[in-house]
Amino acid sequence: MKKVALLILSVALFACSNNKSEQTDSVEIKVEKPYEGQNLLIYVGAASKPPTEEIVEQFQQETGVTVETIFGGSGYVMSQMKLSGKGDIYFPGSSDYMEIAKRENLVYPETEKQVVYLVNAINVQNGNPKNIKSLKDLCKPGIKVAIANPEGVCVGAYAVEILEKNLNENEMKQFKNNLSNYTESCDKTASAIALKTVDAVIGWSVFQYWNPEEIETIPLQPNEIIRIGYIPIAISTSTKNKELAQYFIDYVTGEKGKAIFKKYSYFATADEAKQFIGAEKPIGGEYVVPENWLSK
To answer: Which strand (E) or helix (H) includes residue 132?
Structure first.
């Protein structure tokens, strides 16, 4: 049942009467909150964590809806959603896992929307103390590197794709010697730099804007970037409230959601991402990670 919340504002209205006296009146403004008191459960890839947290907070304040978010690697949260049989929305960090979710009938394909676009980059500590300028610099002795776990984290799969297509056999061996660990999600990949546990990660260009005091982005060369990523969103087939789930998706992809993503320098269009790279690249798609990367 739809509810309507009434917001009473006292507004001072100044009117000049014949005797020049001031008059105060009240204006009643109706603010419609059709889903107030209802709930949403959203499984979210951490590639959008800072803006999504801000969007959710604003959405809750404006609508009276309670939103529970489960963040993590896109593959890991998809597995949670599948095992639990619960959830209203799947909001992964890349097309790769959305394609899997569609094949496994975990989302309604016709509800999928592309929210924003992402470009891979090298992320280093602010000031770049190890003077890392290129992908091949990550192969030099003494450089500590991390990537996200490519088995369940989208940016990890993108990193492996870039490494496999740009490094020769000897460079790959040197890179793996420098690879200290896999991280569990995008936010933990960015945190590895912010906490100075490694010298560099292969992440997203937007990591710098999550924590500009600690993280710096070193762009990859245009020929090193394989494809442009995008963040999709779709309604889960587990939902019992498809109407409210669609309402949230419309909010995320609407002007208010876009403004928050822009604040964190996500690319609103594929053309913006191409301009950043300086070259045409495929959009989205799905990469199958080689077996030898799946059991570090």
So the answer is: none
